[in-house]
Amino acid sequence: MGKQSTEFSALNCIDLSNPDINQSVNLLKQACLDSGFFYVVNHGISQEFMEEVFAQSKKFFSLPHKEKMKILRNEKHRGYTPVLDELLDPENQVHVGDYKEGYYIGVEKGEDDPESNKPFYGPNNWPAPGVLPGWRETMEKFHRETLEVGKAVAKIIALALDLDANFFDQPEMLGEPIATLRLLHYEGQVSDPLKGLYGAGAHTDYGLITLLATDDVSGLQICKDRDAKPQKWEDVAPLKGAFIVNLGDMLERWSNCVFKSTLHRVLGNGQGRYSIAYFLEPSHDCLVECLPTCKSDSNPPKFPPILCHDYLTQRYNDTHADLNVYKKQQA
Q1: Fewer Cβ atoms within 10 A, N terminus or C terminus of the chain?
Q2: Residue 4 half-sphere exposure, CB side, CA atoms within 13 Å?
């Protein structure tokens, strides 16, 4: 592996069972101003269920490649993403994409739902019945439970930005969210930054917040100052039962850069690694414009307003392979 000195990052830990909301707000605010990353514990999802979700994730990725390609991701980003499908850091990933495979699960909306024709809504792309019994039910339950964790975190973020606690709970925001669960499997390659080889290239997340559950294999790294030369990378230690939460670019934009999204990447160390990312964004038609508490005469809005779906569509298109590539391969 390319020699780059790293150390473990000391992240704040937010306890969702803590009755002292002010303490949680202060810890979160400090984390958002410092690294944009923090742990969330006592979130209400049992350790037993977490382990079941990881076990079911491994079952999916253990399927033959041909079986997984039957549910290749569609235009709405639902389904399987093969190894090298995603290219997060084109400047440094000179030859290939990320050495990871994934599976996207969104908010389920049937084809008879008037919302299902929108880019990030619609039916999911599930394995055929009988391939993985009970699998869909497990993932749907985890999707629902993680959404509640995300909403609880969003309340604390709102308070940290001097907004009403229920600011993000409005119908046009997290009332009808674009919430995407993504199962991830890193196959065990050894990354080498000097050769542009990564489990996941350096990137910031697109949306509001990301909640990440990991196994006990390390690999996640963060860079608090993306403009530093050379960049300094810190390891984020796995914490059993916790979610690692980070802020996305949309929240940076919304908060007028008061809170910043943080550059992060995954380096493979030769061990297989599984993680589950939950990307929480506001509704499709939400207008993301500078929050009233984050602007002033001396600090005007830095970004023009933009609709959530326009912003996300562009970001996904920038980082994923054209689906026509796979159609040619299968022809």
Answers
A1: C
A2: 17
pTM: 0.90
Per-residue pLDDT, 96: 59
pLDDT of amino acid 3:
42
Q: Which domain holds residue 187?
A: 12-330
The answer to whether position 266 is within a domain reads yes
pLDDT at 189: 82
Short-list 82, 56, 6, CA closest to 264: 6
Crossing angle of helices 21-34 and 135-160, in 10° steps, is 90
What letters, b where the CB count within 10 A reaches 16 and e where it falls short, cover 250-267?
Answer: bbbbbbbebbbbbbbbbb
| Within a domain: 315 | yes
Distance CA(163)–CA(19), nearest Å, equals 19
Q: Which of 223, 216, 229, 228 is nearest to 265 (CA)?
A: 223
- DSSP lists the bridge partners of residue 182 as 104, 277
Work out how many domains the chain is built from and give that number.
Answer: 1
pLDDT at 162: 96
Strand ordering across the sheet containing 13-15: 13-15, 37-41, 243-247, 209-214, 273-281, 178-186, 101-105, 79-81
pLDDT in the model for residue 211: 97
Domain assignment present for 277: yes
Residue 135 falls inside a structural domain: yes
The whole-angstrom separation of Cα 147 and Cα 322 is 29
Among residues 46, 76, 7, 28, the alpha carbon closest in space to that of 251 is found at 28
For the segment 101-157, what is each residue's pLDDT rounded down to a tens digit? Answer: 999 999 887 677 777 677 677 789 899 888 999 999 999 999 999 999 999 999 999
> SS3 of 101, please?
strand
Residues in the chain with pLDDT values less than 50: 1-5, 326-331
